[in-house]
Amino acid sequence: MELAGRRAQQAEVYAVSSQEMPVSFEANRLKQIRTAASHSVTLCVIAEGHIGLTSTTRLDAAQALVDDALSPAPFGSKAHFDLPAESPKDDVPSYRPSPNWAWKGWQPYLMRRT
User: Fold this and answer.
1) 80-99: buried (b, 16+ CB within 10 Å) or exposed (e) per residue?
2) Tens digits of per-residue pLDDT, 65-86?
3) Which one of 42, 76, 86, 114 is most buried, counting C-beta atoms within 10 A?
4) CATH superfamily, domain at 2-94+107-113
């Protein structure tokens, strides 16, 4: 957010993490357990009144994310709105029916700054 805030008037970051653990059985015996995780970050900026947007799965490339969001901004749609004020990630509700549920799902983390 700091990098984007230095070069854009407004910025909004969405980070999404997902995990899945498919389990399969054959003849009432465990056949396979797999785990997979993915993470992505999306950055929306308003620069000189225009919208720029990009997304990546490279969580170690913050400068590239900012550059990629700002480069199309001059050609982006005119922003006729303001991005929301900062919101801590703990305010974001997520769905998980019970603590013991083996789940495939996502949990968003929002950090916003104007």
Assistant:
1) eeebeeeeeeeeeeeeeeee
2) 999 999 999 898 999 888 877 7
3) 76
4) PmbA/TldD superfamily (3.30.2290.10)
